Amino acid sequence: MVARVVALTQRELAANFLSPVAYVVAALFLIAAGHLFMSNTLIEGGEASMRFMLDSMAWLLVFAVPLLTMRVLADEYATGTIETLMTAPISDVEVILGKFIGVMVFYVALLATTVAHVILLFNYGAEDFGVVTYGYLGMVLLGGMYVAVGLFASSLTRYQLVAALIGMALLAVFTVLVDALASWQGGQWRVVLSYVNVLHHFKDFSRGIFDTKSVVFFLSNTVFFLFLAVKVMESRRWR
Amino acid sequence: MIRVQDLTKMYGDRAAVQSISFHINRGEIVGFLGPNGAGKTTTMRMLTCYMPATSGSASIAGHDVFTESMAVRRIIGYLPENTPLDPLMRAREYLTFRGKIRGLDRASRQAAINRVVEQCWLGDFIDRPIQQLSKGMRQRVGLADALLHNPEVLILDEPTVGLDPAQIRETRHLIRELAQQHTVLLSSHILPEIEATCQRTIIIAAGKIVASGSPEELKQRIREGSRLIAEVSGPKEAVTKAISALGGVRKVACESQNGWNRLTIETTQDSDPRESIYGLVKGKTWSMRELRLEQGSLEEFFIRITAEQSGTAREEVR
Questions:
Q1: B11 and B107 together in one domain
Q2: Is B54 at the interface with chain A, CB within 8 A?
Q3: Second label for B172, Cα 20 to 30 Å away, from A64, A129, B223, B256?
């Protein structure tokens, strides 16, 4: 099982590094994140922490991650390579897992380049190393959930653009929509809606708080959406 | 080796494959022949565990394709229609990837790749990106992938589409060679293709098996469609009348030119009145310069029965 998952992971990574889309998305993401960092944190009187930048990145990723994941399954369906894949002795779970890890490695590599900002910050102010570490741990957990949602979206269609839009819409539900609903409804609903608010959970991490509840939230959502993706793949056989 | 029993696949209300049954023995090379849309690809997809059947069952080497899917997938090599490949990879990378997900370790993978490169003549372009390869080259990469793990059963969907004549001949030769150690099921909508490679043909039209047998057996079945051609000199009326009166003759058409009568003689089933025609002419003052059996081609037979089938299918829909 491990060998097969690793083979798929390698292939997914190679596909990402060969595809111009991944570079364009990565470049735009880094430009946006860098700009926010320069104009908000790296200014006179700015707060010497990564908090603002990480919070903004969690936001930007709502659009960036679905663009990274849209190709993953939709393209297999569009080119027909899904047929060679699913007639090989490899299970649907292995396929999804291999592809998930492949995208995650690319995502973590992308995330690693933003460490440049941390180094810059260390030059100017005394930053808390622990807070930064928790912040990045949060970014990885959050990314895992985003990638899982993106994979699920990509499993639904053979059109990459549609996959990207579905992914963004789903992630928007977990961020913008629940936020808007919470302030509109108020009361008891506020508690429930803030529990499913991804950004709300992430803010703990970016402030350096390690909250098990949030870890469970991210991990369970990741597993849930990967499970959905496997089920969608299975169900597509029946059509 | 391959056993199919009452296999049916419905797409909504439309039956793509309707209750087909057949059996293929080990080492046999069987052609699946039918017009486009007859259900060839659907049947192959069910056999390769890509999609489940609506009803009926199929097994390969004793493993049920539905309940023992992994065991089946391990022993089959499958070349899907249109040869889907990852265009960004190089041919070698693709085969390496396929070897890995088939669980071949580094050494046996290397050996397997070297073997299929030889078998499918990939030597010239093995290190080129797949998107730069021609249709024929891609087809060979797909075939190499199907052969990589030396599978017991090969299922090839239209293996020679898009190849040039020389490659078609080489591929046929390769498939015949492979049939010595493998069981092969291949599909085509082109008859000579199947005639040239297969020991047995299954003709499928509108989701049903309409005929099956060796090319010779199928030829036997088309005897009823054959005619005799004779050229006899003599008075047109008398010749036609005398031949029409012979046993086994159903209908005679005659064309006369320069004293010669060119007769097209339709015979009743299973009869061959050539001898009595010769005897008749010999007993008269006529002479004969041609007498031959014109056999209907497999092609005509194929077109006729598939047309009949799709005709009835259309009526059923109405």
A1: yes
A2: no
A3: B223
